[in-house]
UniProtKB/TrEMBL annotation:
It comes from Actinomycetospora atypica. The lineage of its organism: Bacteria, Bacillati, Actinomycetota, Actinomycetes, Pseudonocardiales. This is RNA pseudouridine synthase. It comes from the Bacteria.
Length: 60
C-alpha cells in the first residue's frame, strides 16, 4: 500500500489505526468486537471516515 494520501478520498478509521502501527488483523478484530470509537461513537465499519481532527479511540 502506498503512503501517498489521495486528497479526494476521506481517511478511514482503518487507515488511521494501521498508520498508527496496529496490524490490519488487529484493527479488523477490534472493529468486529465493538472496541473502536470515533468521536465517542462506536464504529464497526472499517471504511468509516475518520479525518483529523476526529478522535479515534480503542476500548477494551
Amino acid at each position: 500500500m502506498s503512503d501517498l494520501i489521495d486528497e479526494h478520498k476521506p481517511v478511514t478509521v482503518f487507515e488511521r489505526l494501521t498508520r498508527a502501527g496496529l496490524s490490519a488483523e488487529r484493527v479488523q478484530w477490534r472493529l468486529a468486537q465493538g472496541g473502536v470509537r470515533v468521536d465517542d461513537e462506536p464504529v464497526t465499519d472499517p471504511a468509516t471516515p475518520a479525518e483529523l481532527p476526529a478522535h479515534v479511540v480503542l476500548r477494551s
